[in-house]
């Protein structure tokens, strides 16, 4: 079968023999977390309920191990320990996110919670003392429940609410934070949380809510960007970007024009949905999305397409509103054919793609969706260079899940191979990747997977009330990488017996 051939092509490239090892001058390294995944303290010091609190408390059966973020890594109280870990790793920057419901308990800017402001100032001061730059995400999925009760991202007023929240954050923290991310992974927000039940609030409004969300989310992002540009950038001098996730789709047979076209369509629906409006010259949603949704909507008996192009005002207003392209990337999937996906609901995003079927191929991790294909990452980066006018790129997430071993060779190999793919495209293709962020500092609340798919450099023992953090072997790998700005060649990071696979 054609996809078997493609799989072996992908596998051949996964040799671990790096052509380049040294990172260019000025390249920066960081590590990431997100508020709801690490902070805990879910209802103390004025924080109100967010959509993940609501989901985990009312429907615990939806979380793999029935856990929640009530305590998580308790970083709200243990942030100084976290800063120690960051210092050990030697990273240039720390990417973390602000909890909206901790800063604005009503969801609105009528009441700013002083304890929320104090907490983030204390963290920022501790980072400054260690010379670690903050890279801060305004929204990493933990929407205040009060706003969800009004429809969340399906409500067009969210554009105003997000701008108001941004305004408070830029005003309160902008003297200390020079690098901002507005929104983390809009695809996961709109498709997984509104079009499906994979993320909170698990609305499952497939084919409808997902597109209401993208209209509002892109406008909200743009307004936050313009607000910073006009009101804060002149004095604060920082930058603002958005982080877009990609599962990268490869054609099963690169010589087959139909397969290539299907992969392009899939990539436009996944990454282009949010990147095209911001990073292309023409702006707006990708043409293929507008066409497919219109066709599909008509066939389904809708009076209007469920997704329509932005009007000229919004096309212009959204275009160009990101100083860098922030890419979160973990996995590549292989297109298996034009065949109709039997699980596609109607209406739905998947059906709108043309029900393109794909297969999760490549090396294993603990997460079903995370298949290891480093060459896919290189192809994604080349595609971003050619599709989006050679943008300056930050990798804002990349990482690997296993079952929690301290001898985490699988993670080390993943990082080594994916970083090697980055070096290839920097030196061979001139892709402008400026920095890299590993996901994640420590094992944490992995959303619906609970604590069953850890991604951390540090193990966190959640059965011990002190939540001790223990560095894994990968922590030493990353520390050495950052110190030398070079892929470590050290024998102790190699797992000749491929032992890690037994643990997955
Ligand atoms: C990201 N996919 O989520 C999030 O930003 C993190 O909060 C999360 O912990 C991390 O990646 C690991 O899952 C993703 O299906 C969810 O490609 C899904 C995908 C990728 C990233």
Summarize this structure as a short list of keywords or feature phrases.
single chain, 504 residues, alpha/beta, TIM Barrel, 8-stranded parallel barrel, two-stranded antiparallel ribbon, 17 helices, 14% strand, disordered N terminus, binds 4-nitrophenyl beta-D-glucopyranoside
Explain what you see.
41% of the residues lie in helices and 14% in strands. The chain is α/β, with parallel strands linked by helices. It has one domain (28-246, 269-332, 362-492): Alpha-Beta Barrel (TIM Barrel). The strands form two sheets. An eight-stranded parallel barrel has the order 1-2-3-4-5-6-8-9, surrounded by eight helices. A hairpin with an 8-residue loop joins strand 10 (458-460) and strand 11. Helix 4 (75-89) runs parallel beside helix 6 (114-129). Bound molecules: 4-nitrophenyl beta-D-glucopyranoside. 4-nitrophenyl beta-D-glucopyranoside is lined by residues 34, 37, 184-185, 188, 245, 247, 328, 330-331, 369, 397, 439, 446, 455.
Provide a count of the helices.
17
Task: Write the CATH architecture name.
Answer: Alpha-Beta Barrel
Ligand catalogue: 4-nitrophenyl beta-D-glucopyranoside
Specify the structural class: alpha/beta
**Strand composition percent:** 5-15%
Can you tell me the CATH superfamily? Glycosidases
Radius of gyration: 22 Å
* Terminus-to-terminus distance: 27 Å
Mean pLDDT, all residues? 95
Shape: globular
Q: What fraction, in percent, of the residue positions are helical?
A: 40-55%
- Count of discrete domains: 1
The strands making up the biggest β-sheet line up spatially as 1-2-3-4-5-6-8-9
| CATH fold topology | TIM Barrel
Which spans of ≥5 residues are poorly predicted at pLDDT below 50?
A: 1-5, 11-16
CATH class: Alpha Beta
Which sequence of SSEs, written as H and E, runs from N to C?
Answer: HEHHHEHHEHHEHHEHHHEHEHEHEEEH
User: Main beta sheet, described?
Assistant: 8 strands, parallel, barrel
Secondary structure tally: strands: 11
């Amino acid at each position: 079968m054609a996809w078997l051939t493609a799989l072996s092509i992908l596998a051949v490239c996964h040799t671990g023999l790096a052509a380049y090892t040294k990172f260019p001058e000025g390249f920066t390294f960081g590590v990431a977390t997100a508020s709801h995944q690490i902070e805990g303290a879910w209802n103390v010091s004025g924080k109100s309920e967010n959509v993940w609190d609501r989901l985990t408390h009312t429907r615990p059966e939806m979380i793999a191990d029935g856990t929640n973020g009530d305590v998580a890594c308790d970083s709200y109280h243990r942030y100084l320990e976290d800063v120690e870990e960051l210092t050990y790793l030697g990273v240039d920057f720390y990417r973390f996110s602000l909890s909206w419901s901790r800063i604005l308990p009503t969801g609105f800017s009528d009441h700013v919670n002083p304890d929320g402001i104090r907490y983030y100032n204390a963290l920022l001061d501790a980072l400054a003392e260690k010379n670690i730059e903050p890279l801060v995400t305004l929204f990493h999925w933990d929407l205040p429940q009060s706003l969800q009760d009004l429809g969340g991202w399906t409500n067009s007023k969210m554009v105003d609410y997000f701008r108001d929240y941004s305004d408070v954050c830029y005003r309160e923290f902008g003297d200390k934070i020079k690098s901002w991310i507005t929104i983390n992974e809009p695809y996961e927000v709109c498709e997984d949380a509104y079009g499906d039940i994979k993320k909170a609030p698990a609305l499952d409004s497939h084919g409808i809510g997902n597109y209401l969300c993208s209209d509002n989310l892109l406008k909200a992002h743009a307004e936050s960007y313009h607000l910073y540009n006009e009101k804060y950038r002149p004095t604060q001098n920082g930058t603002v970007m958005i982080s877009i996730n990609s599962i990268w789709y490869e054609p099963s047979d690169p010589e087959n024009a139909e397969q290539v076209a299907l992969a392009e369509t899939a990539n436009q629906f996944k990454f282009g949905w949010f990147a095209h409006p911001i990073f292309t010259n023409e702006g707006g949603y990708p043409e293929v999305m507008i066409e497919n949704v219109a066709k599909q909507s008509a066939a389904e008996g809708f009076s209007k397409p469920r997704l329509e192009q932005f009007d000229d005002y919004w096309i212009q207003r959204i275009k160009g509103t990101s100083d860098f392209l922030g890419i979160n990337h973990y996995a590549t999937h292989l297109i298996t054919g034009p065949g109709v996906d039997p699980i596609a609901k109607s209406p739905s995003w998947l059906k709108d793609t043309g029900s393109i079927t794909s297969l999760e191929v490549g090396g294993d991790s603990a997460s079903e969706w995370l298949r290891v294909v480093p060459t896919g990452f290189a192809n994604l980066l080349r595609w971003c260079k050619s599709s989006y006018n050679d943008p300056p790129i930050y990798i804002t997430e990349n990482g690997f899940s296993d079952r929690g071993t301290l001898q985490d060779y699988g993670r080390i190999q993943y990082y080594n191979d994916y970083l090697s793919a980055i070096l290839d495209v920097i030196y061979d293709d001139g892709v402008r990747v400026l920095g890299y962020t590993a996901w994640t500092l420590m094992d944490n609340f992995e959303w619906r997977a609970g604590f069953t798919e850890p991604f951390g450099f540090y193990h966190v023992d959640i059965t011990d009330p002190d939540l001790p953090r223990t560095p894994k072997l990968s922590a030493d790998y990353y520390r050495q990488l950052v110190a030398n700005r070079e892929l470590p060649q050290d024998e102790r990071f190699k797992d000749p017996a491929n032992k890690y696979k037994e643990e997955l």
